[in-house]
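Researcher: Next sequence.
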Amino acid sequence: MGRKPPEFTFLDHLDEFCQRVVKCAAAVILASCVFYHFVDSILGMVVRPVGHLVFTAPAEAFMARIILSLIGGALLALPVILYQIWSFINSALTEKERKYIFVFAPFSLFFFLLGGLFAYFVAIPISMRFFLSFSSEWMVPMITVKNYISFVGTMIFAFGVTFEMPLVLMFLTKIGIATPAFLIQKRRHAI
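Model: Next structure:
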């Protein structure tokens, strides 16, 4: 982070990117190990919207705990992940542009968590009611624990990333990559 952007070659950027990915992966693995100790109580909270789940393979319940631990570990490691992302971006910015990182970096964590909470408390219960409304005498819902955990994780990360989009657009506008005129011109495509 100490060198200026012109000193970086493509291989320097690639090396820095690999180092940051390794740090993110290590943070997720470490946080997942910590999260695994609380996985049973958290699994009860996650399953609450559907009541009960089934598993159809011998190792499915165990794998669901591992998947939930990885999702929880990624959420616990989110500050480290976002720090690594912003640090990588920082190396490509000018001194004038770097000042925006101090504003946008903390808000990126806030907006991701806001999106995840919106998914858990609003979107997932609504979507589960919608999907379960298709049950009938001939089609009885038997949701497997692995599929449900994957669904919940996907929804939380999708909404977290979606809630980041206004912040990303503001940041790109501040550093001059996207202009208000360009955004207005491409509004129809974005919608």
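Model: The chain has nine helices and no strands. The longest helix spans residues 101-132.
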